[in-house]
């Protein structure tokens, strides 16, 4: 399908005008998925992915780039990574730099646990950035897709809503 003049909102403000073309071809054994985006500066990025059907299951397709395409009976589909890969970064020191000091108790323990939970230190486990795509085929030849890109800390970096006309 094709979508033209679509808008992509970015966190941090601003809008991008994009043109997209995508398609899924399936012959019963393999699937070919092509996705092309042209941004407002006419820079083009094309991605072609091939995957194999496994075990006769027609609603879960494994793509070669580590993603799975889930075709749902309702006419919806989603494309998600098979697993989220961690990026472990350590500062080379001890666990938390306290050595053999006794653990805090009571309200101090709660405060420390809360501070650790909201910490943005470099020694926390981060994920490799990934995308998730959700879509639905509506009546006629129209398809709506939402592509979300996530940062390594799990926060959403950008989201794109696209309405496409299938040919």
TrEMBL record:
Residues 1-23, 87-106 are annotated as: Disordered. Residues 126-166 form the Biogenesis factor required for ATP synthase 1-like C-terminal domain. Signal peptide: none annotated. It comes from the Eukaryota. InterPro entries: BFA1-like_C, Calycin. SUPFAM superfamilies: Lipocalins (SSF50814). It holds the Pfam family BFA1_C. This is Biogenesis factor required for ATP synthase 1-like C-terminal domain-containing protein. The lineage of its organism: Eukaryota, Cryptophyceae, Cryptomonadales, Hemiselmidaceae, Hemiselmis.
